[in-house]
Design a protein that fits this description.
seven-stranded mixed beta sheet
Length: 222
């Protein structure tokens, strides 16, 4: 059996180790010992983007914010749903992830990042959301393992009441907030509703033909 090979490592802003591994053509990222993402499991990330942008297929000049670049699956799926004059702002705080995706030697998102509709910002998504009011038609958050499975403590600011109301304020009327989670969370679903969203929750497999169940929280601004 082939082992996972360490391709690269870096430190996160809070001093944790982020590592890129490869095994038989597949890639995996861990923060310390916690798995963050894998190229083997991405169907739920693509579904997240599809659901977030479903109302934008025929909208000219749509603006979408993607929090978390990952391996680029969410970004690619969003681009497929959007018109040629759309704008997709991608925020990714980790330098290593941006560099790995820009490297054409890896089968990640170099092509998607070169799309003229895409603007990449090395910035905390909280800052990007806070700086804008009624700007985005969709905000897609895939920055961690969910509201209660954080690998970075600061990400909690996205999932508390203040963070949710701030995000709703950054959306245009009728906009969609789409959040990826490794597990369901009824309490968080109620918190979203309390922050003024019309909430829908979907379960989605991590792979096209099976895999783990993941949860998609969809909040529509009123």
């Amino acid at each position: 059996m082939k082992k996972w090979n360490t391709i690269d490592q870096a430190l996160t802003p809070d001093g944790k180790t982020i590592t890129l591994y490869e095994h038989d053509g597949h890639y995996l990222i861990r923060v310390d010992r916690v798995e963050l993402m894998s190229t083997r499991q991405h169907a739920s990330e693509e579904r997240l983007a599809e659901r977030a942008c479903a109302h934008l297929k025929r909208r000219s000049g749509a603006r979408v914010l993607v929090g978390g670049l990952g391996f680029g699956f969410t970004l690619r799926a969003a681009l497929k749903e959007l018109s040629a004059d759309a704008t997709v702002v991608v925020t990714e705080i980790l330098t290593a992830i941006v560099e790995w995706n820009r490297n054409p030697a890896f089968p990640f998102a170099a092509d998607a990042l070169a799309d003229p509709r895409v603007a990449i910002r090395q910035q905390d998504v909280v800052e990007a959301i806070a700086a804008n009011k009624h700007v985005y038609d969709a905000i897609i958050l895939d920055v961690d393992n969910g509201p209660n499975a954080l690998t970075a403590d600061d990400n909690f600011r996205l999932y508390d009441y203040q963070g949710l109301t701030m995000t709703r304020a950054a959306l245009r009327p009728g906009g969609c907030l789409a959040i990826w989670s490794a597990a369901p969370d009824v309490t968080f679903e109620r918190l979203m509703a309390g922050a003024g969203f019309e909430v829908k929750v979907e379960q989605c497999r991590s792979r096209a033909r099976g895999g783990r169940w993941h949860t998609l929280f969809l909040g529509y601004s009123r």
